Amino acid sequence: MPTVTAFIAGLLFGSGLILSGMSNPAKVLAFLDLAGRWDPSLLFVMLGAILVAAVAFRAGGERARTVLGATVHLPGARHIDARLILGSVVFGVGWGLVGYCPGPALTSLGVGGWPTLLFVAAMIAGMAVFEVSERVKARRTSGGPPQPATETP
To answer: What is the number of structural domains in the chain?
Structure first.
């Protein structure tokens, strides 16, 4: 059942991105172009999403289980650190250069052509690099076998 629920949620999210025009990178880049022909429509989409998420987080924060019985997992971090800032900068630069963030990029895979495919491939590669670096870091801090030095003398 969780797979079906995730599929329906993803389908609903993707449909919303397509209907709102957020799967079109030109529309997103027009929102980011404050000095040119600014398109504020993304602002309304974001405000609507924030409102829905605020209600969902409020309701989810008071529950131990979802309506379908799964455990509720809410973010635990409550502070701003270097990792959050760096991740935000990388996300913002990618979004500003290409006009895609992960959801719209995946939604556009079927119609976006090679640029979209390259963006998604780069996004997956970035996720893989992050995952590998996190595993290496965890191994080093847990006292695992020492890793070979990457620096040359």
So the answer is: 1
Contacts for 120 with CB less than 8 Å, ≥ 6 apart: 105, 106, 109
Residue 153 lies in a domain: no
DSSP 23: T
Residue 42 lies in a domain: yes
**Residue 6: predicted pLDDT:** 87
Burial class (CB in 10 A: 0-12, 13-18, 19+), 127: exposed
For residue 99, is it within any domain? Answer: yes
Domain housing 119: 2-141
**Per-residue pLDDT tens digits for 91-128:** 888 888 888 888 889 988 888 788 889 999 999 998 99
In a domain, 78, yes or no: yes
**pLDDT in the model for residue 117:** 92
pLDDT of residue 148: 54
Give this prediction's pTM. 0.70
